[in-house]
Design brief:
heterodimer, A: 296 residues, mainly beta, Immunoglobulin-like, 11% helix, B: 309 residues, Metallo-beta-lactamase, Chain A, six-stranded mixed beta sheet
Protein backbone atom coordinates (compact mmCIF):
# COMPACT_ATOMS: atom_id res chain seq x y z
CA UNK A 1 0.00 0.00 0.00
CA UNK A 2 2.80 2.41 0.86
CA UNK A 3 4.20 1.93 -2.62
CA UNK A 4 1.13 3.70 -3.93
CA UNK A 5 1.80 6.73 -1.75
CA UNK A 6 5.45 6.76 -2.67
CA UNK A 7 4.49 6.92 -6.30
CA UNK A 8 2.20 9.87 -5.63
CA UNK A 9 4.97 11.63 -3.75
CA UNK A 10 7.37 10.95 -6.58
CA UNK A 11 4.94 12.28 -9.14
CA UNK A 12 4.35 15.46 -7.17
CA UNK A 13 8.04 15.95 -6.72
CA UNK A 14 8.81 15.58 -10.39
CA UNK A 15 5.98 17.93 -11.24
CA UNK A 16 7.22 20.63 -8.93
CA UNK A 17 10.81 20.14 -9.84
CA UNK A 18 9.97 21.00 -13.41
CA UNK A 19 8.50 24.35 -12.51
CA UNK A 20 10.00 27.52 -11.30
CA UNK A 21 13.70 28.01 -10.88
CA UNK A 22 14.43 24.51 -12.04
CA UNK A 23 12.81 24.82 -15.38
CA UNK A 24 14.65 25.89 -18.43
CA UNK A 25 13.31 29.16 -19.70
CA UNK A 26 14.14 29.40 -23.29
CA UNK A 27 15.17 32.90 -24.16
CA UNK A 28 13.05 34.55 -26.79
CA UNK A 29 14.56 34.97 -30.17
CA UNK A 30 14.02 38.70 -30.26
CA UNK A 31 16.76 40.46 -28.45
CA UNK A 32 16.33 44.16 -28.73
CA UNK A 33 18.98 46.75 -28.34
CA UNK A 34 16.42 48.53 -26.21
CA UNK A 35 16.51 45.82 -23.65
CA UNK A 36 18.10 47.46 -20.71
CA UNK A 37 21.30 47.23 -19.00
CA UNK A 38 22.00 43.63 -19.39
CA UNK A 39 22.89 40.83 -21.74
CA UNK A 40 21.23 37.48 -21.16
CA UNK A 41 22.46 34.25 -19.74
CA UNK A 42 23.56 31.78 -22.34
CA UNK A 43 22.05 28.39 -22.70
CA UNK A 44 24.10 25.35 -23.48
CA UNK A 45 27.30 27.31 -23.53
CA UNK A 46 30.16 24.96 -24.08
CA UNK A 47 32.78 25.51 -21.48
CA UNK A 48 36.48 25.25 -22.06
CA UNK A 49 36.37 21.54 -21.49
CA UNK A 50 34.02 20.99 -24.34
CA UNK A 51 36.04 23.00 -26.79
CA UNK A 52 37.41 19.69 -27.88
CA UNK A 53 33.90 18.58 -28.39
CA UNK A 54 33.30 21.61 -30.58
CA UNK A 55 36.21 20.66 -32.76
CA UNK A 56 34.79 17.19 -33.00
CA UNK A 57 31.51 18.53 -34.23
CA UNK A 58 33.35 20.60 -36.75
CA UNK A 59 35.00 17.56 -38.24
CA UNK A 60 33.05 16.84 -41.38
CA UNK A 61 33.46 13.15 -40.72
CA UNK A 62 31.12 13.61 -37.78
CA UNK A 63 28.60 15.74 -39.58
CA UNK A 64 25.54 13.86 -40.78
CA UNK A 65 24.84 16.74 -43.07
CA UNK A 66 28.11 17.08 -44.81
CA UNK A 67 28.05 14.30 -47.38
CA UNK A 68 24.66 15.40 -48.59
CA UNK A 69 25.66 19.04 -48.66
CA UNK A 70 28.81 18.34 -50.56
CA UNK A 71 26.93 16.60 -53.30
CA UNK A 72 24.04 19.01 -53.54
CA UNK A 73 25.92 22.28 -53.20
CA UNK A 74 29.37 21.52 -54.52
CA UNK A 75 28.57 18.87 -57.06
CA UNK A 76 28.40 15.11 -57.25
CA UNK A 77 31.99 14.55 -58.25
CA UNK A 78 33.41 17.41 -56.25
CA UNK A 79 36.80 17.14 -54.64
CA UNK A 80 37.20 18.74 -51.26
CA UNK A 81 40.06 19.61 -48.97
CA UNK A 82 39.52 20.93 -45.48
CA UNK A 83 42.16 23.59 -44.95
CA UNK A 84 43.38 25.79 -42.14
CA UNK A 85 44.25 28.85 -44.17
CA UNK A 86 40.73 29.75 -45.24
CA UNK A 87 39.56 31.71 -42.22
CA UNK A 88 35.90 32.00 -41.34
CA UNK A 89 35.93 34.75 -38.76
CA UNK A 90 32.89 34.91 -36.50
CA UNK A 91 32.00 34.89 -32.81
CA UNK A 92 31.93 31.51 -31.05
CA UNK A 93 28.71 32.30 -29.21
CA UNK A 94 25.88 34.28 -30.67
CA UNK A 95 23.11 36.02 -28.78
CA UNK A 96 21.36 37.67 -31.68
CA UNK A 97 20.89 35.06 -34.42
CA UNK A 98 19.19 37.25 -37.00
CA UNK A 99 22.24 39.29 -37.80
CA UNK A 100 25.55 37.55 -37.32
CA UNK A 101 28.57 39.29 -38.86
CA UNK A 102 31.21 37.14 -40.47
CA UNK A 103 34.15 37.59 -42.76
CA UNK A 104 35.96 35.00 -44.85
CA UNK A 105 39.63 35.75 -45.35
CA UNK A 106 41.42 33.96 -48.16
CA UNK A 107 45.09 33.05 -48.26
CA UNK A 108 47.17 34.52 -51.08
CA UNK A 109 47.11 31.27 -53.01
CA UNK A 110 43.34 31.48 -53.30
CA UNK A 111 42.88 35.13 -54.23
CA UNK A 112 42.22 34.00 -57.77
CA UNK A 113 39.48 31.47 -57.29
CA UNK A 114 36.69 30.06 -59.39
CA UNK A 115 33.81 30.16 -56.99
CA UNK A 116 33.00 30.73 -53.33
CA UNK A 117 30.07 29.17 -51.54
CA UNK A 118 29.14 29.87 -47.94
CA UNK A 119 27.28 27.10 -46.12
CA UNK A 120 25.53 27.02 -42.74
CA UNK A 121 24.88 23.34 -42.14
CA UNK A 122 22.07 23.49 -39.61
CA UNK A 123 20.02 26.23 -41.21
CA UNK A 124 16.79 25.53 -43.03
CA UNK A 125 18.45 27.64 -45.71
CA UNK A 126 21.90 26.17 -45.92
CA UNK A 127 23.43 28.03 -48.80
CA UNK A 128 24.01 31.68 -48.00
CA UNK A 129 25.82 32.93 -51.09
CA UNK A 130 27.54 31.61 -54.17
CA UNK A 131 30.04 34.10 -55.56
CA UNK A 132 31.70 34.02 -58.97
CA UNK A 133 34.62 36.45 -59.15
CA UNK A 134 35.95 38.25 -62.18
CA UNK A 135 38.82 39.84 -60.31
CA UNK A 136 41.00 38.68 -57.44
CA UNK A 137 39.22 38.89 -54.12
CA UNK A 138 40.98 38.74 -50.76
CA UNK A 139 38.09 38.59 -48.37
CA UNK A 140 34.31 38.49 -48.29
CA UNK A 141 32.13 39.72 -45.44
CA UNK A 142 28.41 39.58 -44.77
CA UNK A 143 25.74 39.32 -42.06
CA UNK A 144 23.92 36.00 -41.84
CA UNK A 145 21.05 34.28 -40.09
CA UNK A 146 21.77 31.34 -37.83
CA UNK A 147 18.94 29.02 -36.95
CA UNK A 148 20.85 27.04 -34.35
CA UNK A 149 24.32 25.84 -33.36
CA UNK A 150 26.08 25.00 -36.58
CA UNK A 151 29.30 24.55 -38.48
CA UNK A 152 29.73 27.42 -40.92
CA UNK A 153 31.83 26.55 -43.94
CA UNK A 154 33.35 28.60 -46.72
CA UNK A 155 34.10 26.48 -49.78
CA UNK A 156 36.45 27.96 -52.38
CA UNK A 157 36.96 26.29 -55.71
CA UNK A 158 40.57 26.73 -56.78
CA UNK A 159 42.13 26.51 -60.20
CA UNK A 160 42.87 22.82 -59.76
CA UNK A 161 39.22 22.00 -59.35
CA UNK A 162 39.44 21.39 -55.61
CA UNK A 163 37.09 22.95 -53.09
CA UNK A 164 39.18 24.38 -50.25
CA UNK A 165 37.03 24.52 -47.18
CA UNK A 166 37.49 26.60 -44.04
CA UNK A 167 35.14 25.98 -41.15
CA UNK A 168 33.97 27.56 -37.92
CA UNK A 169 31.70 26.11 -35.25
CA UNK A 170 29.21 28.59 -33.88
CA UNK A 171 26.85 28.27 -30.90
CA UNK A 172 23.59 30.16 -30.64
CA UNK A 173 22.05 31.01 -27.28
CA UNK A 174 18.61 31.83 -28.60
CA UNK A 175 17.86 29.92 -31.80
CA UNK A 176 15.59 30.98 -34.61
CA UNK A 177 17.54 33.29 -36.87
CA UNK A 178 15.66 31.95 -39.90
CA UNK A 179 12.33 30.99 -38.40
CA UNK A 180 11.52 33.73 -35.93
CA UNK A 181 10.78 37.36 -36.63
CA UNK A 182 13.42 39.89 -35.76
CA UNK A 183 10.66 42.40 -35.30
CA UNK A 184 7.62 41.15 -33.39
CA UNK A 185 4.46 42.78 -34.77
CA UNK A 186 2.43 41.92 -31.66
CA UNK A 187 4.39 44.33 -29.55
CA UNK A 188 5.75 46.89 -31.91
CA UNK A 189 5.28 48.57 -35.24
CA UNK A 190 7.47 46.84 -37.77
CA UNK A 191 8.31 49.26 -40.47
CA UNK A 192 9.09 47.80 -43.84
CA UNK A 193 10.99 50.75 -45.15
CA UNK A 194 12.05 51.31 -48.70
CA UNK A 195 13.04 48.16 -50.55
CA UNK A 196 16.06 48.15 -52.84
CA UNK A 197 17.97 51.19 -51.74
CA UNK A 198 21.63 50.53 -52.42
CA UNK A 199 24.54 52.24 -50.71
CA UNK A 200 28.09 51.70 -51.87
CA UNK A 201 31.11 52.79 -49.90
CA UNK A 202 34.80 52.31 -50.50
CA UNK A 203 37.45 52.14 -47.83
CA UNK A 204 41.17 52.28 -48.29
CA UNK A 205 43.35 49.44 -47.17
CA UNK A 206 47.09 49.00 -47.25
CA UNK A 207 48.78 50.00 -50.44
CA UNK A 208 46.49 50.03 -53.42
CA UNK A 209 43.99 47.70 -51.84
CA UNK A 210 40.46 48.63 -50.92
CA UNK A 211 37.27 47.35 -49.37
CA UNK A 212 33.89 47.78 -51.00
CA UNK A 213 30.88 47.82 -48.72
CA UNK A 214 27.41 47.33 -50.17
CA UNK A 215 24.23 47.88 -48.24
CA UNK A 216 20.88 46.94 -49.71
CA UNK A 217 17.59 47.59 -47.96
CA UNK A 218 15.48 44.45 -48.28
CA UNK A 219 13.41 42.33 -45.86
CA UNK A 220 15.06 39.05 -46.94
CA UNK A 221 12.01 37.05 -45.86
CA UNK A 222 13.02 33.44 -45.35
CA UNK A 223 9.61 31.91 -45.81
CA UNK A 224 9.94 30.23 -42.42
CA UNK A 225 8.58 33.01 -40.26
CA UNK A 226 4.96 33.02 -39.14
CA UNK A 227 2.89 36.17 -38.95
CA UNK A 228 0.39 37.00 -36.17
CA UNK A 229 -2.32 34.92 -37.83
CA UNK A 230 -0.16 31.85 -37.93
CA UNK A 231 0.49 31.99 -41.66
CA UNK A 232 3.94 31.74 -43.08
CA UNK A 233 5.22 34.99 -44.50
CA UNK A 234 6.19 34.10 -48.05
CA UNK A 235 9.85 34.18 -48.96
CA UNK A 236 11.05 37.37 -50.57
CA UNK A 237 14.72 38.01 -50.86
CA UNK A 238 17.54 39.39 -52.96
CA UNK A 239 18.75 36.58 -55.17
CA UNK A 240 21.37 38.23 -57.32
CA UNK A 241 23.94 40.92 -56.78
CA UNK A 242 26.18 41.98 -59.59
CA UNK A 243 29.09 44.31 -58.93
CA UNK A 244 31.16 45.90 -61.60
CA UNK A 245 33.22 48.95 -62.24
CA UNK A 246 34.47 50.97 -65.14
CA UNK A 247 36.81 48.17 -66.17
CA UNK A 248 34.27 45.41 -66.16
CA UNK A 249 32.66 42.91 -63.80
CA UNK A 250 34.03 42.38 -60.31
CA UNK A 251 31.72 39.73 -58.89
CA UNK A 252 28.47 37.97 -59.54
CA UNK A 253 26.77 36.78 -56.38
CA UNK A 254 23.81 34.45 -56.03
CA UNK A 255 22.25 35.19 -52.66
CA UNK A 256 19.66 33.51 -50.43
CA UNK A 257 17.47 34.44 -47.50
CA UNK A 258 20.05 33.13 -45.06
CA UNK A 259 21.53 36.59 -45.39
CA UNK A 260 20.23 39.01 -42.78
CA UNK A 261 17.63 41.59 -43.68
CA UNK A 262 19.10 44.75 -45.16
CA UNK A 263 22.10 42.72 -46.29
CA UNK A 264 25.59 44.07 -46.07
CA UNK A 265 28.36 42.66 -48.28
CA UNK A 266 32.05 43.43 -47.90
CA UNK A 267 34.55 42.74 -50.68
CA UNK A 268 38.28 43.16 -50.22
CA UNK A 269 40.03 43.80 -53.50
CA UNK A 270 43.77 44.19 -54.13
CA UNK A 271 43.09 47.14 -56.41
CA UNK A 272 40.82 50.08 -56.11
CA UNK A 273 37.80 49.97 -58.37
CA UNK A 274 36.59 52.97 -60.31
CA UNK A 275 32.95 53.96 -60.37
CA UNK A 276 31.60 50.87 -58.69
CA UNK A 277 28.13 49.92 -59.86
CA UNK A 278 25.76 47.51 -58.23
CA UNK A 279 22.81 45.77 -59.84
CA UNK A 280 20.45 43.82 -57.62
CA UNK A 281 17.65 41.42 -58.45
CA UNK A 282 15.15 39.90 -56.06
CA UNK A 283 12.87 36.87 -55.98
CA UNK A 284 9.90 38.84 -57.22
CA UNK A 285 11.79 39.87 -60.31
CA UNK A 286 12.38 43.44 -59.18
CA UNK A 287 15.65 45.04 -60.15
CA UNK A 288 17.54 47.79 -58.41
CA UNK A 289 20.52 49.79 -59.47
CA UNK A 290 22.99 51.82 -57.52
CA UNK A 291 23.44 54.05 -60.54
CA UNK A 292 21.28 55.59 -63.22
CA UNK A 293 20.56 52.75 -65.57
CA UNK A 294 20.04 54.68 -68.75
CA UNK A 295 22.82 53.00 -70.61
CA UNK A 296 20.32 51.70 -73.13
CA UNK B 1 -2.85 5.49 7.51
CA UNK B 2 0.57 6.65 8.49
CA UNK B 3 1.72 6.51 4.90
CA UNK B 4 -1.17 8.68 3.94
CA UNK B 5 -0.05 11.24 6.48
CA UNK B 6 3.55 11.03 5.30
CA UNK B 7 2.41 11.61 1.75
CA UNK B 8 0.40 14.63 2.75
CA UNK B 9 3.34 15.93 4.71
CA UNK B 10 5.66 15.68 1.73
CA UNK B 11 3.13 17.26 -0.59
CA UNK B 12 2.72 20.11 1.87
CA UNK B 13 6.50 20.45 2.11
CA UNK B 14 6.94 20.67 -1.60
CA UNK B 15 4.22 23.25 -2.03
CA UNK B 16 5.50 25.46 0.74
CA UNK B 17 9.00 25.07 -0.62
CA UNK B 18 7.69 26.15 -3.97
CA UNK B 19 5.92 29.24 -2.77
CA UNK B 20 8.74 30.06 -0.41
CA UNK B 21 11.66 29.93 -2.75
CA UNK B 22 10.30 30.60 -6.19
CA UNK B 23 9.66 34.05 -7.61
CA UNK B 24 10.68 35.69 -4.41
CA UNK B 25 13.51 38.13 -4.47
CA UNK B 26 16.17 38.08 -1.83
CA UNK B 27 15.71 41.63 -0.63
CA UNK B 28 18.41 42.61 1.80
CA UNK B 29 18.22 46.13 3.12
CA UNK B 30 21.44 47.82 4.13
CA UNK B 31 21.41 51.04 6.10
CA UNK B 32 24.29 52.90 4.56
CA UNK B 33 23.85 56.04 6.59
CA UNK B 34 21.42 57.64 9.00
CA UNK B 35 17.98 57.02 7.52
CA UNK B 36 19.29 56.06 4.09
CA UNK B 37 18.97 52.50 2.86
CA UNK B 38 20.15 50.56 -0.14
CA UNK B 39 19.10 47.26 -1.71
CA UNK B 40 21.95 45.95 -3.78
CA UNK B 41 21.01 44.10 -6.93
CA UNK B 42 22.57 40.86 -8.09
CA UNK B 43 25.43 42.28 -10.10
CA UNK B 44 25.06 39.90 -12.98
CA UNK B 45 23.12 39.29 -16.18
CA UNK B 46 19.33 38.98 -16.20
CA UNK B 47 18.56 35.41 -15.18
CA UNK B 48 15.58 33.36 -14.11
CA UNK B 49 17.30 33.04 -10.75
CA UNK B 50 17.61 36.74 -9.97
CA UNK B 51 14.29 37.63 -11.56
CA UNK B 52 15.82 40.71 -13.13
CA UNK B 53 16.76 42.31 -9.81
CA UNK B 54 20.15 43.35 -11.04
CA UNK B 55 20.07 47.07 -10.27
CA UNK B 56 20.54 48.88 -6.97
CA UNK B 57 17.52 50.54 -5.45
CA UNK B 58 17.18 52.47 -2.24
CA UNK B 59 15.10 54.67 0.00
CA UNK B 60 15.49 57.61 2.32
CA UNK B 61 13.44 58.05 5.49
CA UNK B 62 12.82 61.56 6.79
CA UNK B 63 10.68 62.60 9.74
CA UNK B 64 7.57 62.95 7.63
CA UNK B 65 7.85 60.77 4.57
CA UNK B 66 9.82 58.15 2.69
CA UNK B 67 11.49 58.67 -0.68
CA UNK B 68 12.28 55.71 -2.92
CA UNK B 69 14.91 55.52 -5.60
CA UNK B 70 14.12 53.20 -8.50
CA UNK B 71 11.31 50.67 -8.62
CA UNK B 72 13.15 47.46 -9.46
CA UNK B 73 12.26 45.03 -12.23
CA UNK B 74 8.72 43.96 -11.32
CA UNK B 75 5.55 44.34 -9.32
CA UNK B 76 6.58 41.49 -7.06
CA UNK B 77 9.90 43.17 -6.30
CA UNK B 78 8.22 46.45 -5.44
CA UNK B 79 5.71 44.65 -3.21
CA UNK B 80 8.46 42.97 -1.27
CA UNK B 81 10.35 46.23 -0.87
CA UNK B 82 7.27 48.03 0.37
CA UNK B 83 6.66 45.30 2.93
CA UNK B 84 10.20 45.56 4.18
CA UNK B 85 10.06 49.33 4.39
CA UNK B 86 6.94 49.06 6.52
CA UNK B 87 8.99 47.16 9.11
CA UNK B 88 11.47 50.00 9.19
CA UNK B 89 9.21 53.02 9.08
CA UNK B 90 5.50 53.67 9.45
CA UNK B 91 5.78 56.95 7.60
CA UNK B 92 3.99 57.29 4.28
CA UNK B 93 5.92 56.56 1.12
CA UNK B 94 5.35 59.73 -0.83
CA UNK B 95 7.89 59.79 -3.62
CA UNK B 96 9.33 57.37 -6.14
CA UNK B 97 12.15 58.57 -8.33
CA UNK B 98 13.01 56.64 -11.46
CA UNK B 99 16.54 57.26 -12.66
CA UNK B 100 15.75 56.07 -16.20
CA UNK B 101 13.32 53.83 -18.09
CA UNK B 102 15.31 50.60 -18.38
CA UNK B 103 13.21 47.68 -17.11
CA UNK B 104 15.47 46.69 -14.22
CA UNK B 105 14.97 50.18 -12.77
CA UNK B 106 11.41 50.97 -13.68
CA UNK B 107 9.09 48.01 -14.05
CA UNK B 108 8.04 48.01 -10.40
CA UNK B 109 6.31 51.36 -10.98
CA UNK B 110 2.83 49.86 -11.33
CA UNK B 111 2.90 48.61 -7.73
CA UNK B 112 4.00 51.94 -6.33
CA UNK B 113 1.36 53.74 -8.31
CA UNK B 114 -1.28 51.71 -6.48
CA UNK B 115 -0.20 53.50 -3.33
CA UNK B 116 -0.77 56.85 -4.95
CA UNK B 117 2.88 57.79 -4.81
CA UNK B 118 4.24 60.70 -6.78
CA UNK B 119 6.52 59.38 -9.50
CA UNK B 120 9.44 61.59 -10.45
CA UNK B 121 10.85 60.77 -13.86
CA UNK B 122 12.22 62.84 -16.73
CA UNK B 123 10.03 63.45 -19.78
CA UNK B 124 12.15 61.47 -22.18
CA UNK B 125 12.17 58.46 -19.89
CA UNK B 126 8.41 58.59 -19.35
CA UNK B 127 8.00 58.57 -23.09
CA UNK B 128 10.32 55.61 -23.52
CA UNK B 129 8.69 53.70 -20.68
CA UNK B 130 5.21 54.19 -22.10
CA UNK B 131 6.17 53.61 -25.71
CA UNK B 132 8.49 50.62 -25.43
CA UNK B 133 7.51 49.25 -22.04
CA UNK B 134 5.19 46.56 -23.33
CA UNK B 135 7.64 45.33 -25.89
CA UNK B 136 10.37 45.19 -23.27
CA UNK B 137 8.05 43.49 -20.79
CA UNK B 138 7.35 40.76 -23.29
CA UNK B 139 11.03 40.25 -23.86
CA UNK B 140 11.77 40.18 -20.16
CA UNK B 141 9.05 37.57 -19.71
CA UNK B 142 10.44 35.29 -22.34
CA UNK B 143 13.99 35.85 -21.16
CA UNK B 144 13.56 35.35 -17.45
CA UNK B 145 10.16 33.75 -17.01
CA UNK B 146 6.60 35.02 -16.96
CA UNK B 147 6.09 34.17 -13.31
CA UNK B 148 8.48 36.88 -12.14
CA UNK B 149 6.29 39.43 -13.88
CA UNK B 150 2.92 38.48 -12.48
CA UNK B 151 0.92 41.67 -12.04
CA UNK B 152 3.63 43.72 -13.67
CA UNK B 153 2.16 46.09 -16.20
CA UNK B 154 3.11 49.24 -18.01
CA UNK B 155 0.96 52.14 -16.88
CA UNK B 156 0.23 55.66 -17.94
CA UNK B 157 2.18 58.14 -15.87
CA UNK B 158 1.22 61.68 -14.99
CA UNK B 159 2.61 64.22 -17.32
CA UNK B 160 4.18 66.34 -14.60
CA UNK B 161 6.94 68.48 -15.91
CA UNK B 162 9.62 69.04 -13.35
CA UNK B 163 12.11 71.87 -13.33
CA UNK B 164 15.38 70.32 -12.40
CA UNK B 165 17.27 70.63 -10.15
CA UNK B 166 14.88 70.85 -7.22
CA UNK B 167 14.77 69.82 -3.59
CA UNK B 168 12.28 67.85 -1.55
CA UNK B 169 11.97 68.03 2.21
CA UNK B 170 11.13 64.68 3.77
CA UNK B 171 10.89 66.25 7.20
CA UNK B 172 14.24 67.28 8.51
CA UNK B 173 15.89 65.63 5.52
CA UNK B 174 16.45 67.30 2.18
CA UNK B 175 17.03 65.42 -1.03
CA UNK B 176 18.09 67.13 -4.20
CA UNK B 177 17.20 65.83 -7.62
CA UNK B 178 19.40 66.58 -10.59
CA UNK B 179 18.88 65.95 -14.26
CA UNK B 180 21.47 64.84 -16.77
CA UNK B 181 20.33 64.98 -20.34
CA UNK B 182 21.53 62.45 -22.90
CA UNK B 183 24.04 60.63 -20.79
CA UNK B 184 23.50 56.93 -20.14
CA UNK B 185 19.89 57.47 -21.16
CA UNK B 186 18.11 60.42 -22.70
CA UNK B 187 17.37 61.81 -19.26
CA UNK B 188 19.09 60.39 -16.16
CA UNK B 189 18.06 61.57 -12.71
CA UNK B 190 20.31 61.45 -9.70
CA UNK B 191 19.49 61.97 -6.04
CA UNK B 192 21.69 63.72 -3.52
CA UNK B 193 21.18 63.01 0.16
CA UNK B 194 22.73 66.26 1.31
CA UNK B 195 22.75 65.51 5.02
CA UNK B 196 24.64 62.25 4.64
CA UNK B 197 26.80 63.43 1.76
CA UNK B 198 25.77 60.61 -0.44
CA UNK B 199 24.44 60.32 -3.94
CA UNK B 200 22.42 57.80 -5.98
CA UNK B 201 23.49 58.08 -9.60
CA UNK B 202 21.57 55.40 -11.44
CA UNK B 203 23.34 54.00 -14.45
CA UNK B 204 25.65 56.96 -14.87
CA UNK B 205 28.04 54.78 -12.92
CA UNK B 206 28.51 51.03 -13.05
CA UNK B 207 30.79 49.41 -10.49
CA UNK B 208 32.67 46.17 -11.25
CA UNK B 209 30.62 45.69 -14.34
CA UNK B 210 30.78 46.65 -17.98
CA UNK B 211 28.46 49.63 -18.60
CA UNK B 212 25.78 49.29 -21.23
CA UNK B 213 25.17 51.88 -23.87
CA UNK B 214 22.02 51.34 -25.91
CA UNK B 215 20.69 54.87 -25.49
CA UNK B 216 23.85 56.60 -24.52
CA UNK B 217 25.56 59.70 -25.72
CA UNK B 218 29.09 58.77 -24.83
CA UNK B 219 30.75 62.16 -24.80
CA UNK B 220 28.05 63.70 -22.60
CA UNK B 221 28.10 60.72 -20.30
CA UNK B 222 31.86 60.98 -20.02
CA UNK B 223 31.58 64.65 -19.03
CA UNK B 224 28.87 63.90 -16.51
CA UNK B 225 31.13 61.43 -14.79
CA UNK B 226 33.70 64.20 -14.43
CA UNK B 227 31.02 66.44 -12.96
CA UNK B 228 29.98 63.78 -10.49
CA UNK B 229 33.60 63.33 -9.49
CA UNK B 230 33.86 67.01 -8.68
CA UNK B 231 30.69 67.01 -6.60
CA UNK B 232 30.89 66.67 -2.86
CA UNK B 233 30.07 63.20 -1.61
CA UNK B 234 31.62 60.52 0.51
CA UNK B 235 29.50 57.62 -0.70
CA UNK B 236 28.05 56.93 -4.12
CA UNK B 237 25.41 54.35 -4.96
CA UNK B 238 25.92 53.21 -8.54
CA UNK B 239 23.13 51.74 -10.68
CA UNK B 240 24.87 48.38 -10.58
CA UNK B 241 27.52 46.94 -8.34
CA UNK B 242 28.85 47.60 -4.84
CA UNK B 243 28.86 50.95 -3.08
CA UNK B 244 31.62 53.36 -3.96
CA UNK B 245 33.65 55.17 -1.33
CA UNK B 246 36.71 55.80 -3.45
CA UNK B 247 35.88 58.54 -5.92
CA UNK B 248 38.34 57.31 -8.49
CA UNK B 249 36.33 54.16 -9.03
CA UNK B 250 33.75 56.01 -11.05
CA UNK B 251 36.36 56.59 -13.73
CA UNK B 252 36.25 52.93 -14.62
CA UNK B 253 32.87 53.55 -16.16
CA UNK B 254 34.35 56.44 -18.10
CA UNK B 255 37.23 54.34 -19.36
CA UNK B 256 34.98 51.62 -20.72
CA UNK B 257 32.52 53.86 -22.48
CA UNK B 258 35.24 55.87 -24.13
CA UNK B 259 37.11 52.74 -25.14
CA UNK B 260 34.14 51.05 -26.77
CA UNK B 261 33.26 54.34 -28.42
CA UNK B 262 36.72 54.81 -29.89
CA UNK B 263 36.91 51.25 -31.12
CA UNK B 264 33.48 51.51 -32.73
CA UNK B 265 34.19 54.83 -34.40
CA UNK B 266 37.50 53.64 -35.69
CA UNK B 267 36.07 50.40 -36.98
CA UNK B 268 33.16 52.13 -38.69
CA UNK B 269 35.55 54.51 -40.41
CA UNK B 270 37.54 51.62 -41.77
CA UNK B 271 34.47 49.76 -42.89
CA UNK B 272 35.28 46.80 -40.68
CA UNK B 273 32.91 43.98 -39.95
CA UNK B 274 32.11 43.51 -36.25
CA UNK B 275 33.51 40.02 -36.74
CA UNK B 276 36.94 41.52 -37.37
CA UNK B 277 36.73 43.78 -34.37
CA UNK B 278 35.80 40.86 -32.14
CA UNK B 279 38.74 38.97 -33.53
CA UNK B 280 41.03 41.70 -32.29
CA UNK B 281 39.82 41.15 -28.78
CA UNK B 282 39.61 43.58 -25.89
CA UNK B 283 42.42 45.29 -24.01
CA UNK B 284 43.40 43.38 -20.89
CA UNK B 285 42.32 46.10 -18.47
CA UNK B 286 38.73 45.80 -19.59
CA UNK B 287 38.57 42.08 -19.01
CA UNK B 288 38.35 42.85 -15.31
CA UNK B 289 34.84 44.17 -15.75
CA UNK B 290 32.07 41.67 -15.03
CA UNK B 291 30.15 40.58 -18.10
CA UNK B 292 32.71 42.30 -20.29
CA UNK B 293 32.42 39.71 -23.04
CA UNK B 294 28.67 39.69 -23.37
CA UNK B 295 28.42 43.46 -23.16
CA UNK B 296 31.18 43.98 -25.70
CA UNK B 297 29.69 41.50 -28.14
CA UNK B 298 26.29 43.07 -27.84
CA UNK B 299 27.08 46.76 -27.70
CA UNK B 300 29.89 47.10 -30.18
CA UNK B 301 27.83 46.35 -33.31
CA UNK B 302 25.17 48.78 -32.06
CA UNK B 303 27.67 51.56 -31.76
CA UNK B 304 29.27 50.71 -35.07
CA UNK B 305 25.90 51.02 -36.75
CA UNK B 306 25.46 54.45 -35.21
CA UNK B 307 28.73 55.58 -36.72
CA UNK B 308 28.04 53.91 -40.00
CA UNK B 309 25.51 56.47 -41.13
Amino acid sequence: MYKFYLIIVFLFYSFIVNAGPFSDFKAGAELSEELTSSPTERRNTPNSDSLEQALLVLDPQNSDMWDYLQISLLGENSKVSFVEDVKVIMQDHIEEPHEVPLIVKLPNRLHNFQKLILIIENNPIQQVIALTPFKPIEALGMNVRLEDDSPVRAAILDNYGVWNIGSKMVFVSSPGGCSSPSCDPTVEVCEQGVVGKIAVKQYEREGEAERIKLKITHPMETGFVMNVDGDLIPEYYVNRIHVDDINGPIADIATYAALSSDPVILLDLPEKGQSIRVHVKDSQGLEFFSYNNNSM
Amino acid sequence: MIFFRITLYFIFLFYTYQSYSEFKYEIEIIEISDGTYVILGNNDALTSKNGGAISNTGFIVGKESVFIIDAGPSYIYASEVINKIKHISKLPIKYLLITHHHPDHSFGISKYKELGIEVIMSQSEITRYEKYGNRLLRQMKSLIGEEWFENTSIIQLDDTIYNFPFKINLGGRIVEILYYKNGHSEGDLIVRDIYNKLVFVGDLVFNNRAPTIPHANISNWSNYIDQIYNDEWSLLVPGHGPLIYDKKKIFKTKRWINYINDVAKNAANKGLSPAEVFEEGIKAEFKEYKLYRETWLRDLPLLMKKYDE
